[in-house]
Amino acid sequence: MSQIEIKQLTKIFDTVSGKLKVVDNVSFNVAEGEFVCLLGPSGSGKSVTLNCIAGLLDITSGDIKVDGVSVRERKPNYGYIFQQSRMLPWRTVRENLLFALRAESGRAVPNEDQRIKDVLELVNLVGYEDFYMHQISGGMQNRVGIARAYVRKPDLLLMDEPFGALDEMAARHLRSELVATWMRDRRTVVFVTHDIVEACYLADRIVIYTPKPTQIAAVIEIDLPHPRVYGSAALHEIESRVLAVFEKSLSDFANATDMAGTSL
Length: 264
Known about the structure:
The protein has 264 residues and is α/β, with parallel strands linked by helices. It is built from seven helices and ten strands.
């Protein structure tokens, strides 16, 4: 398991119309084994933050350390779960996992059969090793994506709206499976979402982002044990509290934008 320290993270992109600041001086920590959700409107820099943690994007200023080492110096040991499963359709479930397992070295790794068996048990896909992607449901493909992230035994899981394309009932089912998997083998998780219900159901802590240039509107602790129950009074109270902060951050941003426009 990993711990993360994000200190004064700023990310600016060069575009054809000039410089675009997406993340502006953001700081927060993630403890070992903690499940943290980054919650914010679309385009608010959540995925940019995730990719900076992974070392996939260069940091403009500030720093991110994973287990005390800057991602500028060394990429962390992470698994990445995307919104789309991004499986190779011409490979079976087992072959997709084998491909991920051998991706870095290009050759067989010790105990790879056992590692694949273990991770399929973790996501309840034993018996589907020889199925191709078109032979299993979209929800099962999502579980293969989670298995692919786990099979390399990462210390850190980075999830970029993995259930965003699903209907709510399918998403609820997969969230519950994700929580069950995480509770059996607690990895550090940073999970990107714009869904308040999803964040409150999953997270130990929620980091609420403002619209870009992104700053942190609030950090909310979710002091509610897992697994949580949809529709419960306790969860509803948390959802209401998070919604109030979320709406205030949008309102404050709109007011600040109007004032800036007036001053021009």
